Amino acid sequence: MDPLQELLDRVKPSTEAESLWLKNIFTFISEHLSPLVCSSAPSQTGNHGDLSLFDLSMCAVQAIQQQMCVAHSLPVSYRLLSVSELVSQQHLACVSNLSWSTNQQRAWAREAELAVPGQRALSRVNLLLIGCLREGRDGEYRLTDASGSVMCECLSLSPLWLDRPVFLPHWNYIPHNASGQEETAGFLELIGSPVLLCPGAEQGLAAAPGRVELSGVVGVGEAGRLLRHRVKGQRLSVFGEVGSVCPLLAVAGTTFFCFTLTDESRSLPVLVQDSSRLSWIQCVCVGQSVCVTALRVCALRGWRGNNILCVTKRSELHADYTHTQEHTQEHTHSESLLLMSQPAEEDCEEAEHEEQLDQSAVRTKQSKVISYQGMVTEVVSEGAGLYVLDGKVGLCVAYQPAAKRKLRAGDRVELHHAHFLYRPCPDFPPSMLCTCLRSSLRVTAFSRAGWSPPDNRCPGDGALPRLLLQRNIDVSDYLWTCHLSSQLAHSLVQGVWRQQCVCLLSWRLMETQSRAGGRGRRDIYSEMLDEPHTCPVTQYTVSSAVRQYLSVSELLESLQTDCWSSAPLSSLLPPDGSNLTSSQINGFLSWSCRTLSSEPRGGDAVRQRTLLLVGVLELPSQTSEFKHSMQLRDATGAAACVLTESSEEEEGAQRAVFNSAWIGCLVGVVQFTMVTERFLQSDFPSYQHLHQDRFITHKRCRVYLQFSLDHLHILSPSVAMETHLRHKGEEPGGDVTARKQTVEEKETAGSKRKRRGEEEEGGDSGNPWPCVSMVIRVEQKEGVSWRNTGAEAEDQEAGLRLCFSVKATVIGPVVSWRRDPKNEPITEKESEQKQERKVVLVFSGVCTRWFPVLQPGCFYRLIAANTQDPSVLIGCGVSGRSGVDVHAESTLQVRRGWRFHTLTRPLLLLTCRQAVPPTVLSVSEVLDCSSELVCFQGVVSERISVNNRTAHSGHTHSGVRLTLCDQAGRSLQVYLELSHTPYPPGLLPGNTLLLSGFQRRLSRTGSVYCTYLPVSLITVVSLGDSSSAQPPPPAPIMHLGEWALSSKQRCTVGQVKGHVVCFLFLQLQWSCSLCGSVYTQGCSSSQCHSTSSVFQSKAKLVIDDGTGEAHVWFSAALVRALLGLADAQWEGLQRALRVRGHIRVFPRGQSQVCDGHADDFLLHFLLCLCSSDVMIRPLSLTCRKHTNQRPEGNPTLTTLTNLTATFRVVCVCVCVCVCVCVCFRGEEVHSRRQRVPDQTGSSLSAHLSAHPA
Predict the structure, then answer these.
(1) Mean pLDDT for the stretch of residues 515-522
(2) pLDDT band at 1218 (very low <50, low <70, confident <90, very high)
(3) What is the DSSP track for 684-742?
């Protein structure tokens, strides 16, 4: 009889649809299942080779009917699908369950989405799968039919299913593109047990045919004694509880795994190496009672020669085995299997207490071995083996071989022998679990969530775990490297760096920062089998110095956000800010600066961790606000950088950066200073109005970085840097994989870096194209400024354009090249010198970006690409009349595509006449010289904005006054007019500046100062330590007689130690904060309607140091210190003066009239105070000299004797050796001497500072 008709007669379909469905079932089985089953050998459970097509079809239909939720009907909406169709056509993750109703499916989907927030449940498909389960490679199970096979993952696997036709009623399918796996196809997740289509006799979990009588079974203790005495040919049957299951390993082409059998006293390792028994790894579970037969005793080479039980081809595995003489096995199992849903609170508390002991030291901690069960809530990085369990516990599986099936969000897992670590890395959850080669990880429930796009923050090919296997680093370093890789994958320039390159860069950065380093090769056998257990995660380090990576945009946004909120406006004023007038307040607020170190020191940091930046060094772009400096760029943004480097000529000194090889280098900046300059235009009437924003007319900030090249790590050098390091004798960059990286990866990374370097250096031509070059030595450089120039090209218009010029000496002739020589050493042909030639290079427009790297005294190779014409590098001369000698240099306009390469070692130029470097003066030499144009160097001690106007060019606060000092303590004021030049960064207190081409001038009072010219150049040659805020050098100690008679030392600040001769003048006044008039109940000026006032004070006395006398002026808070009044007494004096507004006192005045009546108690008090003997005391002052000049320019001095002179000085700082305590308003007036002992026991004078009048 026809098998199809027999099937229809047996099932009896009720509709035409059911008949058609049965025919399709029969056709599918005949084409995809029957050839496979009928051609197979007898299975281990019985013979099925003689099964007919009708029997297979009938078994399949019956199995399907039994799984349906509705009886007496066939699932005509479902169809059978072959394995090849499933793999090739199903591209979305899906679920199939024949027993579901619609309501059940909806409830299941809601539970799935609630379990994993942000994820959608698997979509349901009406598909049926039938095939044979067969063992694949490395013990995996595969569903096979005549069209192909697909890998299967099971929650509980039985060898009973092998080589038998099965029907899958409930399964998930995860395609390869949805899981991020390396497999060419997806995999099946079997939710329920398969239904056997040809059921046979149940035989349990037997891995070999034929049931063997379990006679001679011994326990673990007895087997241990037999293990010590190896007998040839002996086979053992051992029962016990599974204590641990190690992961599957492949070493030298051999695949194996180990598990241990335990009892109350000891444990025995069992080695499974036979390929037909590797599937046992999915059958044994920790805590399960099993019996393994036909074990032989063998010696495991590499494990200290210890004997081990080894599985043979005749071995069988019997699960849920209970020995007849064992009564406590179940009780023992319940005690040994301890599963934790979260780490113990006492462990965290103990670790937290330990963490608080020392926040700065690097400490080594011991991990704790625990068991854990939970749900995967986040996949941090599949490639790095990082996950999050239950939303709060991290999981790292990188120390185990990568599993074929990666964990998915929503999977429920069970871990045994996992290591618990507390705060190993600040970028991950505090509680971390880490698996080793003894740990077991088993999925107890598959995820119901659908697929979400894989996060490419770390590559999915396992580059980092492979590096971990080679280097065996600390788990803390590995976690930080993974986090850094995820950040760099987003912040580095896209399309240039492959994901593997990102991992290599992160690894290189970790090696430069790690203190632990590698720990040698792992001993896998000791890690799996030794007691007590040791592995790479048994110990781990905890450090508070772990760096925090920030992208450039994150750093800039953080600084700009905190620019004005970090400090209230009142904090930007001096301590006596409440007594400043409106003009003084607005002047102080016009410019302020905030410097933060990348290393947290106290509260002066953006973060509580040391910061790290990674980016490419570039020349300034056209859109950059800072044209004087290079910039650090990543994919998120660019930040201007003030760069210095160590000087080779002088040890410990710094200099400006001049090497163009840094352009295009990918670097990691490990130490830097963040600078935020704040510019504010305001009209605050008084101190009390600072909280009202309506008085602010304009505000902005500028953010940039300061660091030395000594604090960089080159992660990927440019082609020019590779050449520079090669000739310097250093490696251009170590290979982080220690030559394990493939040649393909090296070539790819090298070619991309080369292309990137050429793009950054601004060349329009490729490397093999021809070019011409000449070698120059820069003699002088002018500052960059806005100038009115003509059009550089036809598509440009004439107008204001950035320009600067460089005067250089040409070394040798113009040389033609077939390819760009970059910064290769100078050749003999280039150094042929017939006659030294001068040239002026003019830079304008986009070419001004070369300004930061061109420094006087350095050699460069100027390259003109895409040409073989030497005339393009020959400048234009200046024509003159016949008989007239023209001494002007030729001029050469630098073009857009030209490039400059620094020649750091011009060895063949020793015979060339070296240029005489310009004389760099100190501040003291500038004060004493008579030159008009000077070049000098000094440390910035003060920066003040001298105006608040906005120029037409849009530059605000263009007037700047810098105070520079030298090591001798002498200071000089420099005035800058920046309205016609881009704003120069780095003009900060503590930085050392080199000022070239500045004009030295004399003020009307005889003070020396310098002014900025259009050709002036400002270069930052050394960066100060902004974190320590070191004060400038102390002013020199001066003698009054010598100081007054000296005509060379003009406008210097000096220290004077003398004795007070008399008190000449004292003025106390309440003034209007706007106009400065006397303020009583209101402003005395009829044109001013201000309602705010400030208290001002001024005093004058005579001091004598034995060589001369001087009139010294005091103002502001120095007057209170001079009078010796406490804060409360000073406030009481202000209240007493509030009604009358002002008072002037002349204690020793001749023909001077004091303000007040004869019975004025306040006047009498001040006269008594100023004339008292306690005022006549020794003082130590820091003063600034003011000398009045006659028209001839000589100072006016009143000579008292041959050794004494009197002149005027303004006190800046006063050290009072005798303090006076005064009570007034009817209270007793008294004085007492007070000395403040220092740490050595000597008297210490109190220093009180104020701003000069």
Answers:
(1) 71
(2) very low
(3) --SGGGTT-GGGEEEEEEEEEEEEEGGGEEEEE--HHHHHHHHHHTS-S---TTTT-S-
Give the closest residue to 539 by CA, choosing from 286, 362, 372. 362
Residue whose structure tokens are 């005395």: 1084
For 236, half-sphere exposure in the C-beta direction (CA atoms, 13 angstrom radius) is 27
State the Cα–Cα distance between residues 548 and 555, nearest whole angstrom.
11
Do the beta carbons of residue 624 and residue 640 sit within 8 Å? yes
Q: Which helix (DSSP H) or strand (DSSP E) does residue 110 occupy?
A: helix 102-115
Q: DSSP class of residue 848?
A: G
Whether residue 346 has pLDDT greater than 70: no
CA neighbours closer than 13 Å in the CB half-sphere of residue 801: 19
Query: What pLDDT is stored for residue 666 in this prediction?
Result: 93
Q: What is the pLDDT of residue 42?
A: 44
CA gap 1127, 1133 in Å, rounded: 10
Query: How confident is the model at residue 1198, as a pLDDT?
Result: 30
Separation between Cα atoms, residue 620 and residue 638, nearest integer Å: 9
Question: What pLDDT score was predicted for residue 136?
Answer: 84
CA 696 – CA 590 distance, rounded (Å): 10
Convert 309-377 into a string of H (helix), E (strand) and C (coil).
EEECCCCCEEECCCCCCCCCHHHHHHHHCCCECCCCHHHHHHHHHHHHHCCCCCEEEECEEEEEEEEEE
Rounded-to-integer distance, Cα 178 and Cα 1009, Å: 72
Which tens digit of pLDDT belongs to each residue from 1076-1093?
888 887 787 777 878 888
> What are phi and psi for residue 1148, nearest 5 degrees?
-120, 25
Rounded CA gap, 192 and 158, in Å?
Answer: 12
Distance CA 988, CA 1005 (A): 28
Compute the Cα dihedral for 121, 124, 130, 131 and give only its sign: negative
Report pLDDT digits (tens) over 1142-1194: 898 888 765 566 776 666 888 888 888 888 888 888 988 888 877 654 444 33
- What is the secondary structure of 396-444 as a DSSP string? E-TTSPPPSSPP-TT-EEEEEEEEEEESS-TTS-SEEEE--TT-EEEEE
Please give the sequence-ordered ranges of beta strands (E in DSSP) within 113-206, or none if there are none.
Answer: 123-124, 127-135, 141-145, 148-154, 164-168, 170-174, 187-190, 195-196
Give the DSSP H or E segment for 633: strand 630-633
Query: Which of 435, 239, 241 has the alpha carbon at shortest distance from 335?
Result: 241
Burial category of 103 from C-beta neighbours within 10 Å (exposed 0-12, middle 13-18, buried 19 and up): exposed
Strand 654-656 relative to strand 696-708: parallel, antiparallel, unpaired?
unpaired
- Which sign, positive or negative, has the C-alpha torsion 1194, 1200, 1204, 1207? negative
What region does 1115 belong to: left with phi over 0, alpha with psi -120 to 50, or beta? beta
Counting Cα atoms < 13 Å in the Cβ hemisphere of 867 gives 15
Which alpha helices (H) appear in 429-523, and where do they start and end?
Answer: 463-471, 475-491, 499-513
Instruction: Return d(Cα 972, Cα 1049) in angstroms, integer.
Output: 11
Rounded to whole angstroms, the Cα distance separating 927 from 968 reads: 12
Tell me if the bond preceding 1033 is cis, omega within 30° of 0: no
Hunting for tokens 């590698």 — which residue is that? Answer: 518
The predicted pLDDT at position 1184 comes to: 80
Q: Answer for the pair 805, 841: CB distance below 8 angstroms, yes or no.
A: yes
C-alpha dist (Å) from residue 462 to 634, 750, 1078: 25, 22, 79
Local confidence band at 152 (pLDDT 50, 70, 90 cut-offs) = very high
Q: Which two tokens stand for residue 396?
A: 């790292």
Q: Is the pLDDT of residue 160 over 60?
A: yes
As a whole number, the mean pLDDT across the chain is: 80
